[in-house]
Amino acid sequence: MAPVSSLPPAPDAAADGLMIKAQRFFEENQKAILIGCGVAVAAGAGYYLYSSQAKAGGAAPGPSSSSSSSTSTQAPASEKSTTSKNKKKKKSKKSKFIEGDGTDGPLLEEIKPKPADKAVEDPFEGVPDAAGIEAMSEADRNALGKTLKDRGNKLYSKKDFKKAVECYTKAIEVSVQPDAVFYSNRAACYVNYSPPEYELCVRDCDEALTLDRTYVKALKRRATALERLDRDEEAVRDFTACTIIERFQDEAAAAAVERCLKKLAARKAKDILASRETKLPSPTFISSYLAAFRPHPKPTLPENPHQGDKTLDLAFDALDAADYAHTVTLANEAIDQGISTKKGQAEAYNLRGTFKFLIGDSAGAKTDLEKSLEIDPAFVQSWVKIASVHMELGDALSAFADFETAIRNDPTDADIYYHRGQVFFIMGEHDKAIADYNKSIELDDDFIFTHVQAAVAQYKQGEVAKSMAAFRKILRQFPDRGEPSNYYGEILLDQQKYSESVERFERSIELDKDKKPRNVLPYVNKALALFQWKQDIGAAEALCKEALEIDGDCDVAVATLAQLSLQQGKIDEAIKWFEKSGQLARTEGELVNAITYEHASRAQAAFLNNFPDYAERLGQIAQGI
Questions:
Q1: How far is CA 438 from its chain centroid?
Q2: Nearest C-alpha neighbor of 8 from the set 582, 508, 449, 484
Q3: Partner residues linked to 103 by β-bridges
Q4: Which residue in 95, 132, 235, 282 could disulfide with 553, CB within 3.0 to 4.6 Å?
Q5: Would you say the pTM of this structure is higher than 0.70?
Q6: Distance, CA of 303 to CA of 519 (rounded, Å)
Q7: What is the pLDDT of residues 174-223, one digit of tens each?
Q8: Measured between alpha carbons, how far apart are the two ends of the chain, in Å?
Q9: Is the C-alpha dihedral spanning 257, 263, 266, 268 positive or negative?
Q10: b/e per residue, 44-64, with b = 16+ CB within 10 A?
Q11: Neighbours of 386 (CB within 10 A)
Q12: pLDDT (tens digit, 9 = 90+) per residue, 580-597?
């Protein structure tokens, strides 16, 4: 299976995963590319999700995205006029290379030269010298330029690219008003040089676009040359412009946007990860992960404790107080100082490995958890956690082997079945997930998240009535807990029962108001509900910002604010939120996702800056006009 870039055991895996909830509505209401800036909110359009691979919070992946219309770009006028299908194909093959006589030239076809059947006549025959050209009228000079362009086209069709360049160059020199086509055709020649001259192609496309800023062929040529030069950010800008100008009908351009964004984001993410300092994720995220394990007593201090024993004891006190930064510091210090008991050592490496996993250091987490198991091979929680690490690393076989080893050590440990059920849930094997959840409930009926996940798995199977009944039972069984109301609210929201869902989110907020750390996800869920229900962007933004006041690193609130900004055409504001999302990203996959959104938004901002008169077209497309 594909690598899982999430935390499988996290309880917030309910209802498709809360950590991707911010994107879900927008994914399901997307257009072919970024169109939020020119769109009224009521149009229901929004943000094109270029990559749907990001997963977070232990959830199954969100819905897949569709990138572009299946309608291809219309053929040039000269091809349309040909009645015979065979003649049409024949003419298209010839005329695609150059521009002129109503045909459109290539993007960047690299055509291997073939020996000409006969010598090419002198392309400059009849062209006056400099003095003669100077004496010509403006109209005659422009006519001569067109003649030279036509001769260049013939040379191009014979694959004599260097002589064709000479013709186009002369056409530019003699013309009082050079045509953009002259530069564009010369650019097409440069990419057929051996080796190709992509920089010269870009330069000529710049000139062509100075003369005609909506010259799509020049935009495409420049975009492709920029991509070949690894200038992907600029390539995304040009391919995005092509896609919008052509009303999203060019599948190749839409695919190129996605391709260049993917390369750009991967490269930038690699550079960022190589230099940035490690950082803990939000308290909401950490507490959700830790809550997925049933509490067990901290190691008892030996009769004559070493300093490391005392420091480890303080680390667990900090953990209980949700002081996660000090927990990490103290766990490191305890290991460095030396712990006197085998049990304490295994616990210390388990604790440090847990936090390495939370910051996205899967390799480091694996090393610490393996050390924990080397010291205490029967430590079930370390087996369960290393299974999560193996899933994050894409090694499902090892993960399931870890679960089996955990069961051999203690078949009565309810955590094993809950977490293995989470893995099955992620894989979409809901029957197996439910079987494991039921086994976990049989062993321990008091753990709330197993009940929640079982109900969610039923919902995912289409057993809506059973799932709803299960949630009502959970609400009765755990009347003082806010989590069931939040998860039940998500199920109601998925069914577009907006009023009821909002009531549930409000109930969750009320019940958990004194919880530390506070669970801010109901705030974000309520924001999404109000946006979907009433298109109340102001209320949605206020709720997300309230969530950030409580938990400044809540990535789902940041992601939601970014997309709400796009809906209002506040693209510069959206870019800032996407930048913040990248800063909060825990894994490389999450960082790539954030960078992708940021630069897709930047490309849209560049388009609207360069083509402000097209904003209306975006709105029309979004509304299906």
A1: 35
A2: 449
A3: 100
A4: 282
A5: yes
A6: 39
A7: 999 999 999 999 999 999 999 999 999 999 999 999 999 999 999 999 99
A8: 42
A9: negative
A10: bbbbbbbbbbbbbbbbbbbee
A11: 25
A12: 999 999 888 899 999 999
